[in-house]
Amino acid sequence: MKTYTIALLPGDGIGRDVTAAAWAVLEKAASLNGFSLDATSYPWSCDYYLENGSMMPAEGIETLRPFDAILLGAVGWPSKVLDSVSLHGLLLPIRKAFVQYANIRPHRLLPGVQGPLRSDGFDILCIRENTEGEYSGAGGRVHQGTDNEVAVETSIFTRKGVERILRFGFEQARARSGKLASVTKSNAQKYSMVFWDEITQRLSAEYPDVEVTSYHIDAMAARMVMAPDSLDVVVASNLFGDILTDLGAAIQGGLGFAASANINPDRSAPSMFEPVHGSAPDIAHLGIANPIAAIWSGAMMLEHLGETAAAARVMAAIGATTARGIGAIPGKDRTDAITASVLSALG
Amino acid sequence: MKTYTIALLPGDGIGRDVTAAAWAVLEKAASLNGFSLDATSYPWSCDYYLENGSMMPAEGIETLRPFDAILLGAVGWPSKVLDSVSLHGLLLPIRKAFVQYANIRPHRLLPGVQGPLRSDGFDILCIRENTEGEYSGAGGRVHQGTDNEVAVETSIFTRKGVERILRFGFEQARARSGKLASVTKSNAQKYSMVFWDEITQRLSAEYPDVEVTSYHIDAMAARMVMAPDSLDVVVASNLFGDILTDLGAAIQGGLGFAASANINPDRSAPSMFEPVHGSAPDIAHLGIANPIAAIWSGAMMLEHLGETAAAARVMAAIGATTARGIGAIPGKDRTDAITASVLSALG
Ligand SMILES: CC(C)[C@H](C(=O)O)[C@@H](O)C(=O)O
Ligand SMILES: CC(C)[C@H](C(=O)O)[C@@H](O)C(=O)O
């Protein structure tokens, strides 16, 4: 029997609740589809930090490298460890070390879920650059504490970094409707964003079957609310993708439904799958977190591993659950009840 | 009779159509309220650029300085002049030269206007930093044209710049509900945004009557769609404010309703009032642009000039118009018809 090795990183807060739920669903889907998943769980988290002084051991990255994939819950518990420490100590280094440069986030309404928009006919795939740009971490402060203080934060875009994410976007667009939206702000950021636009233009010659349109980030944010059905594949920088995917989560009914995949397209290192939501310390371990985003992220993991039928089975079970109203209304059903419904719908 | 001198900059495209409409309304409101407006119009625009090689004359800024206020339509016509040239040649230099550091944008639904959200009870005042930050224009490119190319764009935040916009936000919050939302992304941008958060914290001690909450930009974008009624005054950096105010325009029914004021709070130079929408070359001079955003911006100008009663009169006339369904549905009514209705509702 084919076996995949999976590193589980439940992390903090509700990350633990939803990872347990997702894992139960994934294991059952695997056995129904004739393969197996072999999990190793690591306790890296803010609690781990308080005991050990780091979010993961020094050899953490090398420990994860041999796995076929990583399933992550959520990282952060600001009252225990500053976000700037916890995220830069666990989540962000994994994305960068394993060159998971494509962060993919699907936005559509699950059956039975009512979003905040009057319109409900949309199916958007956001692709966010995940390794550089506005979150490069380059910057500094001078004259600290004085009236004269200045803080700078530098966005760094490399041709390789921009080209590979755009190429990934063109490929995804080709596999879907052939329509690609590229998001910049070149009327106000004339170095980074003009560079991005130039590379988009140049690549478009290689993909004559893809119709690419450039939007400014402000106009795109408005469009996702005014005319989400006019969009298909959207590709954006680290920051712009971050903003647009929370907006995407909002229009799909909330963070309880927003799944994501941090993909290394070259498969030179493991990819990582995680719900978009955070650790939500206020509701941690109360058994009320919605596990659907985590389960959907797990389905994306199965898809990435090539287990397309099992992935489709999980998505169908999620859809059958929300269609019955279970897990469809934020805060209504308990984690257990939603998980049980998905498990039974698996077949 | 009290007379205010106003510089009119109709600019490009529908900027000209809506400025003419707004001006008719403002003149009538002034005469009904016993003061007068003395306009001088300047043709600075992309057409002006094509004839003269610059968006405005070298002494443009000094020409505008003596005026009591500036009313602007829209700038830009990309097929004639690159946006990076036209905006950096006219709109952005005015904002910076006249230290119009507070860009104020109100977001609420006018009577009779249906927005894209199911929810309609919100009244948000966005305050955007307007002179520095992510749109500082600092950056560069190395190894241009090679595989090794890198583009950098540096956000520059000064203590003075951050402090004054936050102070302005605290004052506005104090004058409204006492609730202020400050928007950053300090978990991923640890120089600029941590700096902003620190200054927010420090200032909050001076405003014990204001309850300030920090949100990350991604969470705030989602909140504006999921729970817009939970927000009142929102203060954000240049880029984040730019994005949030287009989102604000979207939830209020579209850019045809989004007004804005570029304020110099010290009154050391004129402030500028402009609709949020652009020049929309595709519908320029067809007589179908919605003038409501421009008229509303004009009402903000009257307010700024201290003509509160006249400002309220204009807002009431706009409300009476949209309540009758005129100008309430994007694309339905002609510019003339909407303007005529507002004029007659003035009394
Ligand atoms: C927690 C934070 C650093 C992270 C990000 O911005 O990448 C999150 O918002 C996300 O979208 O995955
Ligand atoms: C045209 C552009 C430079 C401008 C900006 O980003 O400031 C516009 O989007 C706005 O919001 O006023």
From TrEMBL, chains A, B:
Residues 5-338 form the Isopropylmalate dehydrogenase-like domain. Its main location: cytoplasm. SMART domains: Iso_dh (SM01329). Pathway: Carbohydrate acid metabolism; tartrate degradation; 2-hydroxy-3-oxosuccinate from L-tartrate: step 1/1; Carbohydrate acid metabolism; tartrate degradation; D-glycerate from L-tartrate: step 1/1; Carbohydrate acid metabolism; tartrate degradation; 2-hydroxy-3-oxosuccinate from meso-tartrate: step 1/1. Its EC number is 1.1.1.83, 1.1.1.93, 4.1.1.73. It catalyses: (2R,3S)-tartrate + NAD(+) = 2-hydroxy-3-oxosuccinate + NADH + H(+); (2R,3R)-tartrate + NAD(+) = 2-hydroxy-3-oxosuccinate + NADH + H(+); tartrate + NAD(+) = 2-hydroxy-3-oxosuccinate + NADH + H(+); (2R,3R)-tartrate + H(+) = (R)-glycerate + CO2. Pfam families: Iso_dh (PF00180). GO terms for molecular function: tartrate dehydrogenase activity. Keywords: Lyase, Manganese, Metal-binding, NAD, Oxidoreductase. The keyword Lyase applies. It is found in: Cytoplasm. It comes from the Bacteria. Gene3D superfamilies: Isopropylmalate Dehydrogenase. Its cofactor is Mg(2+); K(+); Mn(2+). Belongs to the isocitrate and isopropylmalate dehydrogenases family. Has multiple catalytic activities. Apart from catalyzing the oxidation of (+)-tartrate to oxaloglycolate, also converts meso-tartrate to D-glycerate and catalyzes the oxidative decarboxylation of D-malate to pyruvate. This is D-malate dehydrogenase [decarboxylating]. It comes from Rhizobium changzhiense.
